[in-house]
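pasting Olfactory receptor family 51 subfamily G member 2 for the record, 301 residues
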Amino acid sequence: MFSLNDIQTLKFLLIGIPGLQKSHNWHMHIWISLPLCLMYVVSILGNCTILFIIKTEPSLHEPMYLFLSMLALTDLGLSLCTLPTVLGIFWVGARDISHDACFTQLFFIHCLSFLESSVLLSMAFDCFVAICRPLHYASILTHTVIVRIGLASLGLPFLIKRLPFCHPNILSHSYCLHQDMMRLACASTRVNSLYGLIIVILILGLDALTILFSYILILKTVLGISSRAERLKALNTCLSHICTVLLFYIPFIGATMIHRFGKHLSPIVHMLMANIYLLLPPLLNPIVYIMRMFQGRKSRA
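structre below
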């Protein structure tokens, strides 16, 4: 058992893909690393492009695009905090990660994930105000309101760090996750599990339901518009955000449900859902919004 006195010297071992950690499967890692590397390049370049466009285009300095820049920063952070361990495993076989590095990565992954949920909620509020309260748009969405962020996830790394570890220090993913590290603790993890469940319920119960309620009100307002062209124009303003919400919440719900109720499933299923949850939104969100920007410019032209 590792006590709190010597836990600083503890290292964790990242598996990556179950069954491919043996030396004779090394050639498979090379082939898997190529699409992974391409995904990271597209994700980082796409989010940096969005930030550059918003910064250099004065006409985009409005609440909707300020929220979009927050989303791009969050996605960029998620990509950068998982990139070192993921590519380290598949490029050079670097599976070891120190105790402090693992908790630092865990902190940023969970903090940025919950922050993204808060940004998506704020963007839903932006769509609601723009469509349902257009005359009060500027007065409601001030810069003070735009700075709203969710920091409930800050407790997760500190709760898990206080635990002693006595099981084999092997993590089943390419990065450090709270639920994965909880399995290695030899003390009671009831507080950690309860806290994680409360956070998930808050995200799904408050953020997701509030977003859904916002779109019910938006749809009610849009259906009251007499002109068909105006109805389509109003709905089109929300299309990109709807795609982004689905890209975040569907993998999030899937990964959560598999972790809670799919313990009998193959480790590969758990690995795939965790990777989809963390890699897919930062990859596709920039594509959705860059296409939206070009369509907006084309329509104005």
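The chain has one domain: 9-300.
Residues 9-300 form a domain with the Rhopdopsin 7-helix transmembrane proteins fold (CATH 1.20.1070.10).
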